[in-house]
Write a structure and sequence with these properties.
This protein has 9 helices and no strands. The protein has 233 residues and is an all-alpha fold. Helix 6 packs across helix 8. The radius of gyration is 44 Å and the shape is elongated.
């Protein structure tokens, strides 16, 4: 009769079989060839393959080739728009950035041209916004002054004429560039400026010599002949 050991049978079933012999001579002989074999569960993350090494060498070669074309001194005069001037400080700062990035002259010019074009677009947008703001001031002044708007403008015009008129005695105007200031800044559309100039225009109609600078105390025309100014010294 054959003795049947149930416990021994169970232990045999539970053991795992290793398909690779522990001391296989063939595996030992091929150990050097399998050095780069991907044996990690997640696909060899962190393992550098021969293909990665070759790609890295190619990238390094490209970087060295590009660096060899970096000029000793960049010249950006060709990308400056007509009528504009090259800022030396900005040019030097950009050249340092281009050199640190190993840019060729052509590459630096492309980036510089884009920067100039972008700056011009920003300036145009700012100018357009400023013009809209000035127009808004004019609309606000019309609404607040209502039916007296033209009257205010007429009085303001008298003040501007008096302030920009050349005095024949001094050959100078009180504020010769007043109109340029009002036009360039747009301040002339502000209701406060209109009111101030209108007020001065009314004074011009009442007392022109004083506004023009030929009257007042110390002038040729004494507006207060009965006043003893020594009492106020």
């Amino acid at each position: 009769m054959i003795d049947f050991d149930l416990q021994r049978f169970a232990e045999g079933v539970g053991e795992a079989t290793d398909p690779t012999p522990a001391n296989n001579d063939d595996n030992q002989g091929n150990g050097e060839q399998n050095t780069n074999t991907n044996t990690t569960i997640l696909g060899g993350i962190g393992t550098q393959t021969n293909q990665d090494t070759a790609q890295q060498k190619t990238d390094d070669k490209d970087d060295n080739t590009q660096g060899a074309n970096v000029p000793e001194k960049y010249d950006f005069t060709s990308i400056i728009p007509e009528g504009a001037m090259l800022d030396e400080t900005v040019s030097n700062n950009f050249a340092e950035i281009a050199r640190s990035c190993n840019l060729t002259q052509e590459q630096a010019n492309k980036i510089g041209s884009f920067g100039i074009e972008y700056a011009q677009q920003v300036a145009q947008q700012i100018q357009a916004q400023h013009e809209q703001t000035i127009q808004g001031w004019a609309e606000q002044a019309k609404q607040e002054l209502g039916g007296r708007y033209q009257e205010y403008l007429s009085s303001a015009g008298k003040a501007i004429e008096a302030l920009t008129r050349v005095n024949p005695q001094t050959n100078q105007a009180p504020i010769p560039n007043l109109m340029n200031f009002l036009n360039e800044t747009g301040v002339g559309n502000r209701i406060e400026a209109i009111q101030i100039l209108a007020y001065m225009g009314n004074l011009v109609g009442e007392d022109t010599p004083r506004v023009e600078g030929t009257g007042g105390v110390g002038g040729k025309t004494n507006l207060y002949p009965n006043t003893n100014w020594n009492n106020y010294k």
